[in-house]
Amino acid sequence: MFEQTFKNIDDILYPDLFKSEEKLREIWSRPGTRKKLLEELQERGFAKAQ
Predict the structure, then answer these.
(1) What distance lies between CA 14 and its chain's CA centroid?
(2) Which end of the chain is more exposed for a tag (fewer CB within 10 A), N or C?
(3) Does 22 map to a domain?
(4) Structural domain boundaries enclosing 11
(5) pLDDT, tens digit, 9 for 90 and up, residues 11-37
(6) Is position 21 within any domain?
(7) Is 14 buried (19+), middle (13-18) or exposed (0-12) by CB count in 10 A?
(8) Is 33 part of any domain?
(9) How many CB atoms lie within 10 A of CB 27?
């Protein structure tokens, strides 16, 4: 799931949410920060189904 999500996000990089793949992996690895990231992406129009 992570790889597919990262490939989709890579097309619309939000540098204010994460600066690199390494930072994104760090955020994604913790449930609390993952949830916040998903909420922020959803607010910006990136649906969970994508």
Answers:
(1) 9
(2) N
(3) yes
(4) 2-43
(5) 556 677 777 888 889 999 999 999 998
(6) yes
(7) middle
(8) yes
(9) 16
> How far apart, in whole angstroms, are the C-alpha atoms of residue 30 and residue 45?
22
What is the token pair recorded at 48?
């969970």
- Please tell me the total count of domains within the chain: 1
Length of the chain: 50
For the entire predicted model, the pTM comes to 0.61
| Residue that has been written with the tokens 């999500």 in this structure | 5
What integer pLDDT is reported at residue 29 of this predicted model?
Answer: 95
d(CA 31, CA 39): 12
* DSSP states along 4-50: HHHHHHHTT--TTT-SSHHHHHHHHHSHHHHHHHHHHHHHTT--TT-
48 in a domain, yes or no? no
